[in-house]
Amino acid sequence: MVSFDQAVAVVTGGGSGIGRTTAMEFADRGTSVVVADVDVTGGEETVSEITDDGGEALFVETDVTNTDETQAMVDAAVDEYGRLDYAFNNAGIGGEQTPITDYPAAEWQHVIDVNLVGVFNCMQAEIRRLQKQDSGGVIVNNSSVLGKVGFETSSGYAAAKHGVLGLTKTAALENGETGVRVNAVCPGFIETPLLTEGGINDPEMREGIEQRHAMNRLGTPAEVANAVLWLCDDDASFVTGEALGVEGGYLSQ
Ligand code: NAP
């Protein structure tokens, strides 16, 4: 692998929350970053924050459910920076919170399309590119603790996040000898706009969610970004197919 300061990363959902913080962490280490998001304003803000700090970044408007756009995202990295080394497939939505019996079919499809099919679309374009490079590369997918256990009222989300782990393990097997490592992070509940929109500002709900973690608090985007960067680092050179918990003890009970 090349060093972080010679490398190029793609971060989907880079316009907000965990994606923005991870894009900025890559840039802090000298990595050139392609920030991909459906949210143009948020994506451009991330790029401005990086370039104002002296880093290198480019925004590419990308809907991960669209294969032409995920291919264009990878092409932009190669056209602008000449290569691709790391991809953080992070774009995602919370979806409606409703029991299965009342879960609207269209909402189910939308959550699966963004959170699962979107990761597949990105991986396909990224891995095709990485396999062409002698230096290989690293993919990190953003799953969730809800990729390992269920959560009442979040069937679409939990199903998609479990699926992301299946995709991660399969791609790791297919690439064991290509020099491309494929891993996932499984965050607990992290303080981001996704949670705010899910109602976390309600004090009772917040306390209930915090108590599900042994550390009795929410995580920060930086705590997830640190795990993503570690998985990309050569320090993790024998780590592939892993679903790394970043979850404050959520699953230890
Ligand atoms: P966030 O702040 O809402 O950021 C997600 C970003 O992805 C937003 O900019 C969003 O744009 C964008 N996005 C949505 N649909 C997209 C699409 N089709 N194509 C490209 N970009 C799209 O959320 P976050 O909390 O940082 O979440 C990032 C990832 O972490 C998600 O996959 C989420 O499931 C996962 N995660 C989050 C938590 C948590 O507690 N926050 C825990 C575990 C895992 P819009 O705002 O316009 O929708």
TrEMBL record:
The lineage of its organism: Archaea, Methanobacteriati, Methanobacteriota, Stenosarchaea group, Halobacteria. This is SDR family oxidoreductase. Belongs to the short-chain dehydrogenases/reductases (SDR) family. One of its GO terms (molecular function) is oxidoreductase activity. InterPro entries: NAD(P)-bd_dom_sf, Sc_DH/Rdtase_CS, SDR_fam. Keywords: Oxidoreductase, Plasmid. PROSITE patterns: ADH_SHORT. PANTHER family: DEHYDROGENASES, SHORT CHAIN, ESTRADIOL 17-BETA-DEHYDROGENASE 8-RELATED. Coiled coil: none annotated.
